[in-house]
Each structure stands twice: as C-alpha cells, then as structure tokens.
Design brief:
Blueprint: H1 14-21, E1 28-29, H2 41-49, H3 63-77, E2 86-89, H4 92-106, E3 112-116, H5 122-129, E4 133-137, E5 139-140, E6 143-144, H6 151-156, E7 157-163, H7 175-185, E8 188-192, E9 215-220, H8 221-224, E10 233-237, H9 239-251, H10 258-268, H11 272-294, E11 307-310, H12 317-328, E12 330-331, E13 333-334, E14 346-349, H13 354-366
Length: 367
Amino acid sequence: MSFTPPIYPYARLDDLREIAQRHEGGVIDCSIGTPIDAPPEFVISALARGEGARGYPPSAGTPAYRSAAAQWLTLRFDVDIAPEHIGACVGTKEFVASVGGFLKLRSPERDTILYPAISYPTYAMGATLAGLRAVPVPLHGGRLRLDLIAASDAKRALALWTNSPSNPTGGLDDLSLAAAWGRERGVLVVSDECYSEFTWSEPGHSILQSGLDGVVALHSISKRSNLAGVRAGFYAGDSEIVDYLKSVRQHAGLMVPAPVQAAVAEAYADDEHVNVQRQRYLHRLELLSAALSARGIDAPVPQGTFYLWVSRHGVDGWALARELAEVAGLLASPGEFYGADGASYVRIAVVQSDEKLQLAAHRLVEG
C-alpha cells in the first residue's frame, strides 16, 4: 500500500475555530506558534537591498551568515566554534523533517530515530518520511528518561532528538546528560534549541557547551526575531556530521536565499530587539496564566518558550480546548497533537497581541 500522509494536526481544529469565531471580536488564535510582532526594521531594510539576489547562494551558507551565527553562539553560550562547523538550513522544520533520511544514507545499518514522547510532531514525522522507526522516549519533569531507552533501540538509533526549552511543555532538560549518553553509545544527539532565547527560570543552554563531538545544535531566526516567514536557521556541531550534511544538502538543492542570509546575519548581531520581545512574551504568559488559574485550570508559567501547557484534572485535552473556545474564543491545540502522553493537556501559544490576550483573559475570568 502506498503511503498516505496523516491529516496535518492543525487542520483538525476547524470545528473549534468555528466555535471560537462566534464571539464578538472573533477568534483569538493561539494554536500555532507564529510570531505576530513586527520584526526589526533594520532587517527588513537589509532584505529590501536584495544583496546577492542575482546568483545562487551557497547551500552551506555565506561566510558572513556562518560567521554571524558563530559570533552569536559565542556571545550567548560562550561556545567557541569555527564558522566551518556551521551550515545554513531553510528554516529548522525543513532540517528536522529531512535529516533522518540523510543520516540513513550515511549509516544504512541503523533505522531508528529517538525523540521525546511529548514533542514537536515533525521529529516523528521526519522519521516516517524517511522510512525509519520513530521511537518515543518518556519524559519526567520535562527531562528525557534516558535510562528507559532500550539497549536494542540505542543500537539501531541514527539520532536522538532533544528539545530544550521544550515545545510544547516549556521544560528545560540537562543537555550535557544527553550528549554523554549519545557519546557512550555512538548515537548522534541533535538538539533543537530554537526557543533558547526565551527562558524564564534560568539562562538558555546549548548542547554545544558540552563539546562538539557527537552532537549537532539547531537554531532558528523565526522565534528570536519574528522572522518565521524568511525561513532561515542554522545547524552547528560535530565537524564530520556538519561537513557530511552540508555536502548532501547541496546535492538536494537546499539553499537559503542570499538576501535572507544577509539580513539574518544582521539580526544575529543585535540583542536589543530580542530583549524587547522576551519581555513581551513573559508578560503575556503571566497574563494568561493568571486568568486560566482563576478558572481552575492548571497553567504554570513555563521554564522556557512562549507556550502554556495547561490541564484540568480529569478532563481530556480536546474537551478543555473546546471549553476555551466556547468561553473565551481562544483557539488552542489539544496536547494529543504532541504525542499520546500529552492527551490530557492543551498548548496555548501566547503569540497574539496584548490587547487580544487581555480580551481572552477577561472572557476567561468573567465567562
């Protein structure tokens, strides 16, 4: 039988969207983590200049792009890394979905991708698209239970995914433990760190802080600078793996447009706009957390990300999402989207404006 892709998760929200839309003022869509705040003007100006638009850009990234990424890693995480150990990607989702297949070509004797049991759906889907086994790893307190990975699965693993801060839970993991686990077993650890700018309980961390051998870190400009539409990110780490991926990705024609690379390099050189955005998201998290708590919903401010991972004892995630749509016009994502272990939760992305979220909070408290 030929492969039939499953329904895209967020396409399953049409009924809830219709319910939420009935409110005066319409739906307040917090289902997808799409930034709505303005990106920096200097980045838009750089895009408009169209630097390098006439020719094909380097698939691995221009020297300026990779140097900017390296300098940012040093500034943010005190990681000393050469630009040669960095490659560009066309947004990080593309990398997540494709890397399993590329790794399989390199190590055909292995056939498994390990990923957090509650996580971004593309980790598992990327394995499926490559014809690989997707094996979930249980979580406890936001951390991977590495001790519960079967030796037989580790032996077959091409990679272990980590995601800290976690989408959707907001939890922080000990990335050094994951790196050590992978090195002991010869399993590449790929660390999705696209929310590392948004941590609330402690500074963000990178797996690269534990060394480059056997690890690759993945970063995105989408959340950091409200530039999801330009589709740009980078991967960095183990020189052998990075060199291999740069080569195979060049053959696949994967290239970030040159004007985007030039503009994003400027974005990575500036922290001021990120600091402003960080305060926006923290305010929004606290606003909705308080309103949801007043309604008897468990909605703690997370350790990181701009997501609330909420629940009510004894209530299914779909039922809770329906209540939020009916009472507050709030469209949120049932936790089942992120794995069976998340079925009793709902994820709320605080990506709408302060005014809209204040309206949602008012409806929750008064409804």
